[in-house]
Every structure is written in structure tokens, then in C-alpha cells.
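Continuing the series of single-chain predictions for the mutant panel. This is the parent chain; the variants come on the following pages.
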Amino acid sequence: MNGRSQPQMSKRLQSGLPSRSSKHAIIVLSVVVIAHLANAAISAWFGYLSPDSWTYLRLAKGFQTHFYPTLDHSYFAVFPFGYPLLLALASPGLDLVHGAIVSKFVNAALWIASYVFLMRLRVPALPAAALVITPF
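Parent structure:
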């Protein structure tokens, strides 16, 4: 080396403690997880489904039985089929009612994953949480 000392690490890094911003992000992540899981549980309990949700569930059932998106035994390509395919993979062999319950928890997992993805893009914790909680 050229005689200069190595830059000293902060005491926080040396002690192994998480930084204040990472503690903040963990707290916000916890709020996001709790909010979405509570929404999933409440929605599953009361059984709320929009007409679009029923269509996606029926498309998922079509994927399970025919391996392509079908409604009423005919090909259906009006809605995107990635989400029904994910529902079909998450609820193999379940009927529409149980598939609806699983769909609420799949949605929660997707929203939580969206939050984590935004955090990886270095979006601050609160705006990222606002983006993924607002669509309720």
C-alpha cells in the first residue's frame, strides 16, 4: 500500500447492528405484510369477489382442466392469462370456492413481493408502502 491507512468503518458497521434506515424498512415491511394478510383473511372470510375475480378464477379452473385459458369450454383470450395460470398453480385440485380463498393470499404474496421489489430498486420505504397498500 502507499502508507495511507484503510478507511475506518463506522462503529455501527463494526458492531454488526442494522442501520436506522434498515430498521425503518423492516418496520414498514412488517406493516405491509400485516395489512395485506389481514386484507386477505377478511376478504376470504366475507367472500368478496368482483366479477373480474370470478372470471380469473374460472380461467384458472380452465387451466387446471384443459391446460389453456377456457371459459365455458371455449378458448378465452380477453383477459391476460398469467394471473389465472398462477392461481391454477397455487390451487391444484381445489374448487372455485377454495380457489377464491387461495387467490386472496396469492394477491397478498404478490403485493408483498412488489414492495420488496420496489425496495430493491431503492425506492424509499414509505412511498413503496404507499404504492402497494393504496390499491386496497
